[in-house]
Predict the 3D structure of the following.
Amino acid sequence: MIDERDISREKQQFYQARARTAVENLRRRNFEAQYVASRGEALTTILDMIPQDVTVVRGDSITLDQVGVLPELKKRGQKLIDAFETDTEGNWAAEPEERLRMMREAFFADIFIAGANAVTLDGKLVNIDGRGNRVAPMIFGPRKVIIVAGANKIVRDVDEALERIHQFCAPLNAKRHSLKHHLSQLDDLPCVRTGRCIDCNHDWRICRYTVIIEGVWVRDKGRISVVLVGEELGI
């Protein structure tokens, strides 16, 4: 007897079809790109992409935490710079100045690894930062960039990507930082209070730097690798 409550197979096939289109178009734009069906496959794929003797800097990413990349890198003795490490209460492990120094290390790292807010079907990466420490090294600096994204991040085009980020990702991410990292001042953001973006100019606005990566320059071909995962990951 079929179980109409379970649509996991349907979702997998749907995500795979969309991811294949996105991967094909990412490659046309000089990205390295691939699709894997699960977070387990993603973990193996990502670890295979990272030599053990290189320095890795991570950007803030729920997806990386869900895939389990960081514990595995630490387990094998990787030199890992993580400005987003927290204690058991969710407080940042490093002091503000030390965190800023660690973020700047991304520009000189062998590998920078992060998530993405949105990937378009025609092969573009769309991200918005509050401080710019994630989007800046995506563009220039580290020798290699690895972007990991769940297939739920795949959108039709840039307009849909920006709508998704402003109306969904940013409010939810602000609330995450409030609840988990004790930044209660973010609760006063209009998008958090009302559930919709009004393009505010609040001091604590987290949508400050919008970056659309439309491809990789030919001399840097393959510098940015995108791993699309056939699961719902991140925000």
